[in-house]
């Protein structure tokens, strides 16, 4: 990232720093949780196949889990794994009392139905929050495990907004992984919430009404400077690798960052914004799952 | 309701007529379902306490279920019923193969937690669609049982819109019973969806942007004529009994109907709009639940 003058740099939401603070706090909470006589929280990560990007993600999750003082279990299965074999493994992990969280890395090979697999994880171990029970709890406002990326976005928003009541939040992108749970979280914060997507007729006009704008489309540079209401808080979930004129590559978000920075009140950079929060929230969810299993209330309310 | 000139009467969405057609069709489908050798679909309705309005609702549900050719089971328990007694009954109903749908009439007495009770109904028998599994399925876009009132609203919308893609739908009211599932259904129809509620700063301005406006607040007359975009479709879920100047009472909705009628493109009256659809959708869900139990796909897609 370039260096910005102080008045612009002050607008940046430092996801990397916030994620590090959260991870440090979780580490301390894990220590005191174990000192109180509870089992060491354990996270099982399951990877099927040899996608290189997925291998990197899974490895990073395992390392950070371990660093936070938790047990990390890795299960790497071949690309040819049958659905029933994966379901058998999940049944074992569901029954294993050393394991409090289970994550199956997506995408899965074509012979495996991700919906069946996701719903085969016991709801109280579903630390990705992607199963139907946790999705329902989020929708109904019942405590449950919230998907990591939108939870991270919420924490970034809470770093700049003490109270979001009455703010108009616009979410661009309506995926089950980010956009839809994000909308639920913002409703719970008493925001007025609008969801735009590929079929929305005038996304720019809707975005311009947003006090809080969350963009999760995977289309790099979609949101231009003139899409943003002056002073709005912008959370950019997108992350795409693009070639530079010098023949190298760099990571960019769904927001045209240089255009948006002078207009937004607060904005997340890419990289260093939402990205680092996702793993930190996975650790948060794993500790929460361990607490619930051992009959403790969760550490903090959202 | 008054009599309107033809150009205004043509704007009315005839919920009563549409519900009657749906109920008739379900009756025919039930007949052929049974003729094909399937069990008679059965609905169990559970009432706890002596609320007179609830007694009327429950009785109407039972009668209409019976008229549609299905079995109707009524369980009326005293106000003093303990939660564990109700859960015991629900376990029996879950296990009873003659029963395909279970509905617990709300509200429940204060000693009973409605969340616990709702989630004690087996998801495939949860014909009110209020449990966490069905809420999650709706949120994730997986087939499931959809709450009756928003499902009825969707059918009324489909009676005037073949395709809602790209329309801006605004839902006023964010309850788990109506507003939130309604927003999910409208997203699934490819609408751009905004949800307003008690904390929304300028509900009128947002409502004026709506091509489709669904109002479910319980505040009679909240939505005035100048809240409505000319030509919009207005679905009024509210139903409140108010006194008339003549010392009688009448039922009114959340929309100031006489003001809205000349401006809206289509509008539901109160009574005779959304109300009759709710029981018709309960019958629809009961037949769907019976079909799923007996391994048939559901009758029609949404």
Automatic annotation (TrEMBL), chains A, B:
Catalytic activities: (6R)-5,10-methenyltetrahydrofolate + H2O = (6R)-10-formyltetrahydrofolate + H(+); (6R)-5,10-methylene-5,6,7,8-tetrahydrofolate + NADP(+) = (6R)-5,10-methenyltetrahydrofolate + NADPH
Any one cellular-component term (Gene Ontology): cytosol
Binding locations of NADP(+): 173-175, 198, 239
Gene3D superfamilies in UniProt: Leucine Dehydrogenase, chain A, domain 1 (3.40.50.10860), NAD(P)-binding Rossmann-like Domain (3.40.50.720)
EC number: 1.5.1.5, 3.5.4.9
Pfam family, one: THF_DHG_CYH_C
GO biological process: L-histidine biosynthetic process; methionine biosynthetic process; purine nucleotide biosynthetic process; tetrahydrofolate interconversion
MF terms (GO), sorted A to Z: methenyltetrahydrofolate cyclohydrolase activity; methylenetetrahydrofolate dehydrogenase (NADP+) activity
Entry-linked SUPFAM superfamilies: Aminoacid dehydrogenase-like, N-terminal domain, NAD(P)-binding Rossmann-fold domains
Pathway info: One-carbon metabolism; tetrahydrofolate interconversion
Role of this protein: Catalyzes the oxidation of 5,10-methylenetetrahydrofolate to 5,10-methenyltetrahydrofolate and then the hydrolysis of 5,10-methenyltetrahydrofolate to 10-formyltetrahydrofolate.
Oligomeric form and interacting partners: Homodimer.
UniProt-listed HAMAP family: THF_DHG_CYH
Tetrahydrofolate dehydrogenase/cyclohydrolase NAD(P)-binding domain mapped to chain residues: 147-292
Domain Tetrahydrofolate dehydrogenase/cyclohydrolase catalytic: from-to ranges: 13-128
InterPro entries linked to this entry: Aminoacid_DH-like_N_sf, NAD(P)-bd_dom_sf, THF_DH/CycHdrlase, THF_DH/CycHdrlase_cat_dom, THF_DH/CycHdrlase_CS, THF_DH/CycHdrlase_NAD-bd_dom
Name of the molecule in the record: Bifunctional protein FolD
UniProt family annotation: Belongs to the tetrahydrofolate dehydrogenase/cyclohydrolase family.
Keywords: Amino-acid biosynthesis, Histidine biosynthesis, Hydrolase, Methionine biosynthesis, Multifunctional enzyme, NADP, One-carbon metabolism, Oxidoreductase, Purine biosynthesis
């Amino acid at each position: 990232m370039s260096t910005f003058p102080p008045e612009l740099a002050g607008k940046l939401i430092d996801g990397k720093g916030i994620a590090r603070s959260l991870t440090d706090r979780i580490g301390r909470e894990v220590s005191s949780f174990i000192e109180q006589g509870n089992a060491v929280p354990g996270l099982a990560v399951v990877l099927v196949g040899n996608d290189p990007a997925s291998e990197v993600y899974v490895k990073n999750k395992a390392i950070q889990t371990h660093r936070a003082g938790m047990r990390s279990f890795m299960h790497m299965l071949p690309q040819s794994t049958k659905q029933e074999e994966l379901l058998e493994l999940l049944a074992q992990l569901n029954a294993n009392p050393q394991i409090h969280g289970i994550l199956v890395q997506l995408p899965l090979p074509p012979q495996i139905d991700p919906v069946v697999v996701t719903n085969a994880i016991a709801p109280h171990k579903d630390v990705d929050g992607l199963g139907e029970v946790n999705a329902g709890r989020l929708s109904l406002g019942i405590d449950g495990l919230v998907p990591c990326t939108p939870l991270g976005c919420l924490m970034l928003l809470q770093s700049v907004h003490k109270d979001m009541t009455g703010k108009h939040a616009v979410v661009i992108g309506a995926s089950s992984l980010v956009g839809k749970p994000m909308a639920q979280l913002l409703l719970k914060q008493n925001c007025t919430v609008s969801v735009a997507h590929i079929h929305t007729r005038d996304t720019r006009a809707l975005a311009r009404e947003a006090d809080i704008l969350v963009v999760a489309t995977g289309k790099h540079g979609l949101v231009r400077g003139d899409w943003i209401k002056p002073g709005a808080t912008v959370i950019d979930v997108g992350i795409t690798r693009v070639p530079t004129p010098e023949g190298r590559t760099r990571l960019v978000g769904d927001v045209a960052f240089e255009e948006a920075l002078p207009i937004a009140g607060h904005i997340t950079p890419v990289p260093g914004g939402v990205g680092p929060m996702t793993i930190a929230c996975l650790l948060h969810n794993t500790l929460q799952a361990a607490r619930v299993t051992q009959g403790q209330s969760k550490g903090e309310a959202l």
